[in-house]
Amino acid sequence: MAVPADWDFNLTNWLLYATAYVSAPTSLKYNPPVYTYIHAISKKTEFQDLKTGRIVSNFRSDRIISFYPTFIFRHQTAPGAVTPDTGYMVRIDRNYAKLYRRLNAVETKLGEGAISPILVDNTWYQFRVTWWTSYDYQNNPSLACRVERWYYGAWVTITTLYDTQNLGLDTNTNRPGVGAYNNTALADHYVLHDDTELWIPT
Q1: What Å distances lie between residue 25 and 90, 92, 150, CA to CA?
Q2: pLDDT of the chain along its 202 residues, tens only?
Q3: pTM tops 0.85
Q4: Which residue of 55, 56, 92, 122 has the smallest Cβ count within 10 Å?
Q5: What domains are defined for the chain?
């Protein structure tokens, strides 16, 4: 990932971690509190209105069954602040990639795709999430979101999901980022992200 100064965080439960990484010297370690999200949202100017874009990131979790990596896009909070309650999020657990829309503190699950083979603890994985405006299977104008996994030298599609609400299309703040979610009452586990890339259309 880029230096922490390039990101807004909603919590302070993170650190640069020199014990495990993809590229030296560190990864970014998230230790989310119980049933809580940690978001790192880009502050860089070129990513402030990314209605169409892509996030590529390597991640690992020491308890993937309940400490989930997240990919965030079209985040609606302006630079200098972060709230988990606005925008889209892909949440990765051991079995599924799930797309959520969060708006006014209401979380709506929009769909999921099965991950095969399933993910295991303490293992690095590379995923990418791409989003754009398209049409759903009923030919309705929609947000489209594709989740892919790097597997044996190729990108493999897990799922492509849609949302006719298409949140953020009429605003000029649509920021991307990565993070973690703790879906348990435990508080002593973590998620790592490293070599995170943010892509803009060319």
Answers
A1: 27, 25, 23
A2: 557 889 999 999 999 999 999 999 999 999 999 999 999 999 999 999 999 999 999 999 999 999 999 999 999 999 998 988 899 999 999 999 999 999 988 999 999 999 999 999 999 999 999 999 999 999 999 999 999 999 999 999 999 999 999 999 999 999 999 999 999 999 899 999 999 999 999 8
A3: yes
A4: 122
A5: 4-199 (2.60.120.560)
